[in-house]
Write a sequence for this structure.
């Protein structure tokens, strides 16, 4: 199993540009999450999904959108990039029910200038 | 809102024990976790404790939970250079997970 994979690893965007951060998991997990990690801060939850077709906002959803058309994929969309979105983005997944461990991807480092 | 706090830095000598502390605010948390993050990598679960437990031991790791004070600690016995990393405390309630800012552990030879 590859686990949770994220692409790209690094990206530099200009203010106002758009991009999609890709996340794929091959563990058949229903639950998937997007977090951002700012320096010296914990992870902040952006969006999460409890299954295909179901998404919900986390703590910091503004400026982002998600979709979940399949169990495997959970892309995160930035429509109008702003410098405040400079961060490291982590995708994670976990099993439904008794599996409380979240499996994290390696992260995408995004800089908006 | 819910909040998880940790000190940001800890330095120990190789072979000593490390104790990383965490306080949380949500008394309805079901599970509390310790994650490890190595440079350039995602977080990896080290251990977790159910909220009705006081202690959990797993090889070199000991987790202590004081529910009254909402205090969680992680003790690493015989700390090695490979333990150098950032350690995150986290709590979960329902589908939500709240992470602390992370404690950067430096192990000195």
């Amino acid at each position: 199993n590859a686990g949770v994979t994220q692409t790209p690893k690094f990206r530099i965007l200009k203010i106002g540009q758009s991009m999609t951060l890709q996340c794929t998991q091959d563990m058949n997990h229903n639950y998937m999450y997007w977090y951002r990690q700012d320096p010296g801060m914990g992870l902040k939850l952006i969006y999460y999904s409890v299954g295909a077709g179901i998404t919900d906002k986390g703590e910091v959803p503004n400026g982002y959108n998600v979709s979940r058309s399949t169990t495997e994929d959970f892309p995160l969309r930035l429509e109008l990039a702003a410098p405040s979105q400079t961060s490291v983005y982590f995708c994670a997944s976990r099993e439904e029910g008794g599996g409380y461990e979240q499996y994290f991807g390696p992260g995408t480092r995004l800089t908006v200038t | 809102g819910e909040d998880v706090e940790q000190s940001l830095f800890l330095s120990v000598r190789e072979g000593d024990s490390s104790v990383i502390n965490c306080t949380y605010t949500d008394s309805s948390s079901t599970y509390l976790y310790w994650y490890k993050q190595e440079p350039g990598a995602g977080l990896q679960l080290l251990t977790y404790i159910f909220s009705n437990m006081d202690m959990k031991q797993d090889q070199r790791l000991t987790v202590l939970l004081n529910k009254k004070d909402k205090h969680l600690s992680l003790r690493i016995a015989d700390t090695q250079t490979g333990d150098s990393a950032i350690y995150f405390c986290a709590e979960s309630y329902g589908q939500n997970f709240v992470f602390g800012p992370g404690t950067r552990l430096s192990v000195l030879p």
Observations:
- Chain B has no helices and eleven strands.
- The mean pLDDT of chain B is 91.
